[in-house]
Design a protein that fits this description.
- The protein is α/β, with parallel strands linked by helices.
- The chain has one domain.
- The chain has nine helices and five strands.
- Strands 3-2-1-5-4 form a five-stranded mixed beta sheet.
- The longest helix has 21 residues.
- It starts with 5 loop residues before the first helix and ends with a helix.
């Protein structure tokens, strides 16, 4: 018999829940820091998805008291919060902080979208249909450029050996195919 976990039983998160989470984290944290949203949370806030299962975040620098706040808010808001970002799956891209997009400041916490170029590479490394659709949506919203995507891949390619779950040749092919497909769309316009 399969046991259902609390994660499975929680409802999907919508844009309103993300806003509530940001406000509550800003009130609960005991000091300053930055929280970077990735994946579905970014998709919700920008508007190419209407819901997500998890709120994936990166803390950098980590706000004091944030883990106590997260534990409390996961229960109060009935949401899944995961510590996950592209640099958990790929080498950190040079300049990722500079390309991260500011969302708002709540209390002493600054909220950002994690670098969309890094998010795109991370999703292309997985290659699932939903991931590819997300990358296409990010590109169509002009959240990253094809040139930057290719340049950033080349910058991290020598470090991919440190990530055994990644097939560097497959990722290169996915990146090149995405760039080629979208360059072709630009020429048709």
């Amino acid at each position: 018999m399969l046991r259902r976990t609390a994660k499975n039983m929680r409802p999907n998160v919508d844009n309103k829940k993300i806003e509530q989470l940001m406000q509550a984290l800003g009130k609960e944290a005991r000091g300053s820091g930055c929280i970077y949203f990735t994946g579905g949370a970014s998709a919700l806030l920008i508007g190419w998805r209407s819901s997500t299962v998890d709120v994936d975040i990166r803390l950098d620098p980590e706000p004091p008291g944030i883990f106590e706040a997260i534990a409390k808010l996961k229960q109060e808001l009935n949401i899944n919060i995961e510590l996950a970002s592209p640099q958990d799956f790929l080498p950190p891209l040079p300049g990722w902080r500079d390309r991260s997009v500011f969302i708002s400041k709540q209390g002493k916490i600054s909220f950002y979208h994690y670098d969309f170029t890094a998010q795109a590479l991370s999703k292309l490394s997985r290659g699932f249909e939903r991931d590819i659709n997300d990358v296409q949506a990010m590109y169509e919203q002009r959240l990253f450029s094809l040139t930057k995507l290719g340049d950033c891949f080349e910058a991290i390619a020598p470090e991919l050996i440190r990530f055994p779950s990644i097939d560097p040749d497959m990722l290169r092919t996915n990146v090149e195919n995405f760039i080629e497909l979208n360059e072709g769309k630009q020429e048709e316009s």
